[in-house]
């Protein structure tokens, strides 16, 4: 269970920076979309407007599903950005994108249709598979659980714990 939730990082410096950039941007996108659904931020519909949009495409009951989708996107985005329980965050936002593609965008066109949710799904899937990298709270927690110093350097004689 520890390995599933807090994977060891096998990345190096540049890959860690790349994963951090990916997580921060992906997290910010989902926090913003979750806030649109929940609070009407940035021109979003809030729970009521999002619920009506969900009902219009056959997702019923609309408002509870809007609250669920918004919460999953907001919380998942925060977890991704922080690199905390990263795989759960990626699973949460990825699930939202699968539903968005199937229920909202198909059988529409690729461009101007489902290409953005598909790209976001692919990014979430990649982070879920690769892990958050060493520049994450998951890595800090993993090092502490493995008994390594918080600086990220492994103790002499122990495997690299990141």
| Radius of gyration, CA atoms, in whole angstroms | 18 Å
As a percent range, the share of strand residues is under 5%
Shape: elongated
Number of beta strands:
0
Helical proportion, percent range: over 70%
Textual characterization of the structure:
70% of the residues lie in helices and 0% in strands. The chain is mostly helical. Helix 2 packs antiparallel against helix 4 (62-82), helix 3 crosses helix 4 and helix 5 runs antiparallel to helix 6 (110-130).
Give a brief rundown of this model:
With 162 residues, the chain is mainly alpha-helical. Helix 2 runs antiparallel to helix 4, helix 3 crosses helix 4 and helix 5 runs antiparallel to helix 6.
Give me some keywords for this one.
7 helices, 0% strand, 162 residues, 70% helix, disordered C terminus, mainly alpha, single chain
Question: What are the SSEs and their pairings?
Answer:
Layout (H helix, E strand, L loop, with lengths): L1 H4 L7 H27 L6 H11 L5 H21 L3 H20 L4 H21 L6 H10 L16
């Amino acid at each position: 269970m520890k390995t599933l939730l807090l994977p060891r990082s096998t990345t190096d410096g540049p890959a860690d920076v790349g994963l951090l950039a990916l997580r921060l941007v992906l997290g910010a996108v989902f926090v913003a979309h979750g806030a649109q659904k929940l609070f009407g931020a940035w021109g979003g519909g809030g729970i009521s407007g999002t619920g009506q949009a969900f009902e219009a495409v056959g997702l019923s009951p609309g408002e509870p599903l809007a609250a669920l989708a918004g919460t999953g996107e907001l919380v998942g985005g925060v977890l991704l950005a922080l690199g905390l329980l990263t795989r759960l965050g990626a699973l949460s936002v990825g699930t939202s994108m699968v539903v968005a593609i199937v229920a909202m965008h198909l059988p529409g066109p690729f461009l101007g249709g489902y290409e953005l949710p598909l790209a976001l799904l692919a990014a979430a899937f990649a982070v879920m598979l690769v892990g958050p990298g060493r520049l994450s709270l998951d890595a800090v927690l993993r090092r502490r659980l493995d008994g390594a110093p918080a600086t990220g350097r492994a103790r002499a004689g122990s495997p690299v714990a990141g």
